[in-house]
Amino acid sequence: MRYRLVFIAGLALGYVLGTKAGRERYEQLRKSARQVAQNPAVRNTAETAAQQGRQFAGKAYHAVSDRVGDHVPDSVAQRVRSLRERVGGNGADDWGTSNT
User: Fold this and answer.
1) Higher per-residue confidence, 65 vs 90
2) What is residue 99's predicted lDDT score, i.e. its pLDDT?
3) pLDDT band (50, 70, 90) for residue 87
4) In the beta sheet, which residues pair with residue 98?
5) Which DSSP letter does residue 88 get?
6) What sign has the CA pseudo-torsion 80, 86, 91, 92?
7) What SS3 string covers 53-92?
8) pLDDT: is 84 or 88 the higher one?
């Protein structure tokens, strides 16, 4: 019982001390994160990483589909076909995402 009281007292003290500077620090962190996100170098790096991720995902998709082949149950294969038809040929890659 004593340990529970000490634990609860510690939680209460941490909450009180954390809320005093909490909002100001939160606003500072939010402003810093926004500045970093709007930095052109960061945006270019993120876009490059996204493009590389799409390329690797496409390669992995083809490698897996070549190896799996006819081992996929018909119900799953039919579902994949229907999803591909629904996406259509509007500039999307094999995953149904845009390449932009």
Assistant:
1) 65
2) 52
3) low
4) 92
5) -
6) negative
7) HHHHHHHHHHHHHHHHHHHCCHHHHHHHHHHHHHHCCCCE
8) 84
Q: Which residue has the tokens 């690797």?
A: 56
What does pTM read for this prediction?
Answer: 0.44
Inter-axis angle of helices 2-37 and 40-68, nearest 10: 100
In single-letter form, the type of residue at position 65 comes to S
pLDDT at 5: 77
The DSSP 8-state label assigned to residue 92 in this structure reads: B
What average pLDDT score do residues 32-52 get?
90
Place of tokens 């100001």: 24
Distances (CA, A) of 7 to 21, 58, 60: 22, 51, 49
E strand intervals along 6-100 = none
Q: Which residue has the tokens 């070549």?
A: 66
CA distance readout (Å), 8 to 4, 18, 20, 28, 84: 6, 15, 19, 29, 55
CA distance 88 to 82: 10
At 98 the three-state DSSP class reads: strand
